[in-house]
Amino acid sequence: MNDRAALDLLVSQGPLTRTQIGELTGLSKPTASQLLARLEAAGLVRTTGNVTGRPGPSAQLYEVDPAAAQVAALAVDQLGITAAVADITGQVLGEERVGTDAVDDGVPHRTARLVAKAVDGALAKAGLGREQLHGTVIGTPGALDPQTGRLRYAPHLPDWHSRALKEELAEVLGTPITIENDVNLAAVAEQHDGVAQDFDDFVLVWADEGVGAAIVLGGRLLRGATGGAGEIGYMPLPGAPLSRGGDRSAARPDAGGGFQRLVGSPSVIELAHAYGAPDVRTVAGALARDDVRQEVARRLATGLAAVVAVVDPRLVVLSGEVPQAGGEALRALVENEFDGLALPRPELRLSDIDGNPILIGALRTALAQARDAVFDTTG
């Protein structure tokens, strides 16, 4: 327990002296010295210079050894895969983007080859090999059904529906594999680095090409019996066509019905066309129009009211292309429209994550898993 406490401090606060570690953990100087010697011998901690500018003998600084473990994180979308490789401290060492056309259709184990190509590209930039990876976390639309092992709620990623996909990826990369819902990972990023850092109960609503939600209660993600908790894109709402069984086989994430047909990126652009702006080609361009922004806010508020009435979170985070393009003007309109629709009054915030929140959440998850394993000095 003392070892883990010291390692967590070194990760969160950076280089520390023996005295500082002792003060922060409540350990005596001899115990702190023994702890640091043990961690240094285990290859988990290294010295990194001395404290200068103070009277008396200079004190040595200690830090987590970045070479203790490396992890890979991936974000999957319709157009390709983005991979990042980081050391145990969280420092990103290499990143690679691979399009879906990087491996020809019909090639055996195409998905595993695409993943390997993305990871190998990131590893090459980091100057590392696959054998140095400790684990891999992949963020993808949909969710793995824990009963069947199949990816559900992602009909637009047909190559990812193999029952043996997880095993194929683990064999190719040579690491343990975690496949996690992309919106859940965006919520992990928000918990650690974004506007939800002080909240144990919140909902992240993702409005992009696809629409979904991550539900965090008591600081933990709610997954559901089949991994489908938060699949609000299928939620029936007034004004939206119903999403029935056959619609789920559609190749486009905006096909079918429900909430996704109201606030997904393609629908926002279609709305601008319906309002007399046929030349609009981007979500940002569509939401620059007052009439489109007002209607999208009304639609978002209607969907949020249904979610909030069931979950009653303290905070709702708006993330994805649509909220980011609409900005504070859209958020304020949603908040105004939301008044009177539901009794609970959660705070409504825009995501402020800098970078790809899905990739950042995958990296956070991979690091947590690696640290739990590598920082365990009881073995």
CA-CA gap between termini: 13 Å
Number of helices: 12
Q: Strand arrangement, largest sheet?
A: 6-5-4-7-10
- Overall outline: globular
- H/E element sequence: HEHHEEEEEHEEEHEHEEEHHHHEHEH
List the helices and strands and how they pair.
Blueprint: H1 2-13, E1 16-17, H2 18-25, H3 29-41, E2 45-50, E3 60-64, E4 70-77, E5 80-87, E6 92-99, H4 110-126, E7 133-140, E8 143-144, E9 151-152, H5 165-173, E10 177-181, H6 182-193, E11 202-207, E12 211-217, E13 220-221, H7 260-263, H8 265-274, H9 283-287, H10 290-311, E14 315-319, H11 321-338, E15 347-350, H12 357-374
Parallel strand pairs: 4-7, 7-10, 11-14, 14-15
Antiparallel strand pairs: 1-3, 2-3, 4-5, 5-6, 8-9, 11-12, 12-13
Short account of what is shown:
The protein has 379 residues and is α/β, with parallel strands linked by helices. It contains twelve helices and 15 strands.
Question: Tags for this entry?
Answer:
five-stranded mixed β-sheet, alpha/beta, 12 helices, globular, 379 residues
Can you offer a commentary on this structure?
The chain is globular. The protein is of the alpha/beta class. The chain starts with a helix and ends in a 5-residue tail after the last helix. The chain has helices at 2-13, 18-25, 29-41, 110-126, 165-173, 182-193, 260-263, 265-274, 283-287, 290-311, 321-338, 357-374, and strands at residues 16-17, 45-50, 60-64, 70-77, 80-87, 92-99, 133-140, 143-144, 151-152, 177-181, 202-207, 211-217, 220-221, 315-319, 347-350. The model is unreliable at 246-254 (pLDDT under 50).
